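Figure S4 source data
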Amino acid sequence: MADSSASPSVKQTLQGYHQLVSADLDRTVRFWLDHSVDDQCGGFFSCLEADGTVYDCTKYSWPMCRQVWMLARLYQEVDRFHQPHVLEAASKGGEFILQHVQEASSCRCYLSLTREGRPLKLQRTIFSEAFFVMAVSELYRVTRHARYKERADATMAKIIHWVRVDSTELGFSVAPPTHVSSLSVPMILLMLIGQMETVEPARTAEFSALGDWCVQQISRHVVDRGANRGGLAVMENVGQDGGLLPGCSGRLMNPGHAIEAGWFLLERAAKTDSESLAALALDIVSSSFRRGWDSRHGGLLSFIDLEDRPPTQLEWDMKMWWPHNEAMIAFLMAYKHTKDDGYLDKFGQVLDYSVKHFVDPEHGEWFGYLSREGVVKINAKGGQWKGFFHVPRALMMCEAMLQELLQTC
């Protein structure tokens, strides 16, 4: 590990990054509090135009639950957001999802609802449920209201059952293929474990074995192709034994997911004091960024085919907001762990691209979808998938890491 002392120029760089990130976080929080809160029916709108105008009143559980989590986490951990109106918005959003998002007869959660909270669609995955757990567990952390803990614990137990034992309750007419392992499943479960450990540190030992299982499952997606073929590659889909799958699905790589998996593992390595896991995580972050960064136009590609064959995803060359958020977190976390200036340079590279192309200094928040050339393609700040989560989470985490780094300079 490199020398922990920082040169004056590095300190100035960190100070500049901190100022930029903090100002962007303030603008982002203000944008969503000003425009997304539904005072009439409860919950949050996520379909917002560039200036915050609501263009669709449909409510989506992914962004809505994640907004509850984000507001509660900001209230809990960032002093300037420890304000009554922030907690009020989180709590009102929490009451809406408690009343409307979860199916009455099970722990399953609706993907979308009407403005008033009537269910529209139920998905056959664990992700709506996972974000529901994030939201209500964080509200329990802030308020200590038992009803939040009860719903979080019950839903978490169901998710573990669906992942580890039997997923047929999710609604498949027949069991889904058991020979395919999707990277997103152990990733989301590892994230939930970290969340539950943060809410109740006394339960860390309870989740230890499950955390190890998630790390093992994620590691099975890592393929070493050798130095002459780009080093490590993190595959989106593999066989249950880690073997490569045939066809497009087996060659698919999602750079944003891979980088996010890298910082999940680096965070886990810090908790478990595992330098071998940290080394793997750092390699994953660097190799995934190297494969995903567009050398011609800058920015991270959305999908790549490992053999450079035609991708099947029509949006493969678009530049989306969230992979850049994950890369910001990953590289700053890597720098914090190693003090290797190369990681700080990469953080600056991603931040510079993002400020130039995604950030809207006039209204606040980021645009979500760019062309390969970096031109805004959808003039909106939110929708079914983009809400108050990836941008503020990255800014909040990076602000905290920069503060810690500056304190040790």
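Figure S5 source data
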Amino acid sequence: MIHTIAIPPDAQMAPLMRGYAASVSARRRQMLLGAAIAILAFLLACIGAEVDPDKFWANLGNFGGYFYRISKLDTGSFAWTDPVEWYWGLGRWLRLLGETLLMAYLGTATGFVGGFLACFLCSRNLVARAWVRFTARRMLEFCRTVPDIVFAQIFVIAFGLGPLPGVLAIAIHTTGALGKLFSEVVESIDMKPVEGVAASGGTWVEQIRFGVLPQVLSNFASYGILRFEVNVRGATVLGFVGAGGIGEELLLAIRKFFYSDVSAILLLVAICVMVIDLASEHIRHRLLTIEGGKT
């Protein structure tokens, strides 16, 4: 069977082509206008923040020069040529790094529980009272808006130097961050299981237990692991304000110009973070695979 294709005459094609060209031209103008606005906003931000490009380019060599300096020992040789001398304080640094990891773990675990408990109160598909949702959301906003390093400084004044201020700061910030993510996951669930539990006489807690949790636990775990990665990096910085961990030792080395110690500690932290990233990425993919298999 032979099919014939009718080709419109030029008189009919011309208006269509003109309309298409006009549409493409309008879309191109919108893209150019958007790019121009973005560039203008960037330049205005540089002016407002007193960011001087000339100063940046003039001192860029100092940045590379510092990394060159920390790559050498006091003897003048490159650090990797004498690993024993380079990592003379390995035992102490590993202990402080372990302290940093424990800070991140305890802060993440505590924040996970806080975000878990608060997220259900923020979800409009589970809580009908607007004032309850409003209060819970503003609380989480406060927790995640204030930087964890600010919380750490406050807790250092209150509780003194050590890991405790770091753990508390990480826990509060993690509560706010995970609470928001968890609530978004809860608001996107299928409500039929929840309605089924409610129809059978289940309480609000039972609706969450049997209707919500089976749908969200894998996502909650994935977000929790991802947050732990972030908190490991954050716990290192919190040491700069006296909140314990390897950060204190790194700040001391920077202030006293112990260049080789700076590079040794930075490399140690970088390797630790990379290992954690790889492990957590594998775990998160496994969790998502399991969740995909269920669906």
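The two ends are 44 Å apart (CA to CA). The domain at 89-294 is CATH 1.10.3720.10 (MetI-like fold).
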